[in-house]
Amino acid sequence: MKNNGRAEEMAQLLEEQASSGMSKKAFCEARGLAPSMFYYWQRRLSEEPAMGGQEPGFTQLEVQPGAELEVRLPGGQWLGVRASSASALGLLLEAISQRHA
User: Fold this and answer.
1) What's the CA gap between 65 and 31, in Å, rounded?
2) Is 56 contained in some domain?
């Protein structure tokens, strides 16, 4: 997210509202927030990957002979591969990386 400071501020406000026992409308009125802004940030922050602030990408792996590989993708898709050689898995990972770079 480009504006991490604003996102962190709004995430804190969302947490405060959740633990306040107040309705979202009442919380926004008490804080002088436009409800539309509150809901915008609620939606925006809930859509971010839950990766601790990391951007999605590829991780370099060390592949052992006879290894099995399972890759889980957004949307519930996954890919499972069994290979008898590390080079076969390496080639597959390289092809996926080039396709989605």
Assistant:
1) 59
2) no
Of 88, 56, 54, residue with least CA distance to 69: 88
* pTM (2 d.p.): 0.45
Report residue 8 as tokens: 């962190």
Structure tokens at 74: 């957004």
Nearest to 4 by CA among 57, 53, 37: 53
> Using CA atoms, how far apart are residues 62 and 47, in angstroms rounded to an integer?
31
How far apart, in whole angstroms, are the C-alpha atoms of residue 93 and residue 4? 32
In a domain, 61, yes or no: no
Please report the pLDDT score of residue 100 as a whole number. 65
> What pLDDT score does 1 carry?
44
- Within 8 A by CB and 6+ apart from 44, the residues are 7
Domain membership flag for residue 12 = yes
